[in-house]
Amino acid sequence: MNVTSRLALRLIPDSLESQPVFLCIDDTMVSKFGTKFEDVSKLFDHAVHNGSNYLNGHCFVSIMLCVPVWNRQKVSYLAVPLGYRMWQKKESKLELAASMVRQVMPEFCQKKNAIILCDSWYVKQNLVSIVDDYPNLGLIGSARSDSVIYDLAPVSTGKRGRPAKHGRRLSIDTDFALSDRKVGGYYTGCRRVLTNIFGAKEVLAYVTSPSREGGTRRLFFSTVFPSQLQFFCAWQEKAPLSQTGSGQMEYIPLFLYSFRWNIEVSYYEQKSFWSLCSYMVRSRKGIEMLVNLINISYCAMKLFPYMEETFSQYRGGSVQEIRFALSIRIRQQVFYANLVQNIETHLKSSVIIKALKQLCLKQMG
Fold first, then answer.
1. How far apart are the C-alpha atoms of 299 and 302, rounded to whole Å?
2. Domain carrying residue 326
3. Are 111 and 245 found together in one domain?
4. Which of 71, 94, 104, 308 could make an S-S bridge to 126, C-beta 3.0–4.6 Å?
5. How much of the chain is in helix, strand and coil states, percent to nearest 5?
6. How far apart are CA 203 and CA 213, in angstroms?
7. Are residues 292 and 338 in the same domain?
8. pLDDT one-digit tens code per residue, 33-82
């Protein structure tokens, strides 16, 4: 994980050193029909399509690093999954994710902003408390719509008695004024709040809705404030960040949350094209080693076009394309190596040389 992080961070050009990097956290299920695999168990999965919300298999917690690179004069974020850890139930997913973040954080000591991106499952005290351990670490995540949030503490009146730790309790339905027009596809409200999840730390709360009147409202928290970011909006490859004007700067942390989707794309690619779910090893240690070996191969293909100029045309493309192109080159090398080894006699050599000369003359003509 640390080696992959260092390789990815070296790809950041000097002109983008001030841009934030992102650590996406999520978990994925791998269904197994057998019961002889170590630590296999019944797991709840809201996305399973087998007529039930439960499957027999393993759950892996993973972390992904997104770093900024140039791609056709636009800032594109290269997403590199760092590693997988099998969840064993004796340790919560939150603690497992926090330990993985702590392992790689020494690699980001020179970065101004390293931001964790996660869904509502991980926005809980066991994980978010890690933000207080590192001065350059922040968190942006979705939260349960029924999360308890409060207004900021009122100004002290000087009267006797214990001062209030927070203001009145807020409702996402009545206490957030939505924008007059859609921002990033949604009407959005924003204000500074306090919440028990982050303790006494002030955070930004965003509320989004598809319509100004009615509609389902979603809640997001950000420990990162727009004033702390130096972000090149106009150079971004994708909307809505590339379309953000001066009047929408307060919504930048909310827009940054969209980078979390990269980890879902990685799960799909590794499961569909890299045999992540096809392991037949039974021991937990062996399974983790094999899954992470597959992940290393996947990361190598993502990093290779940025490290080798010969394959630069594959930057920003599908990982499967670069793997296919590289496999063609390998097969060509194997063919030529076998050809040379099998040319044993002078007679065979002269025939091959004559054929190559005729081929060259034909191409030149």
1. 5
2. 321-364
3. yes
4. 94
5. 40, 25, 35
6. 26
7. no
8. 877 898 888 887 766 666 677 888 899 999 999 999 998 888 999 999 99
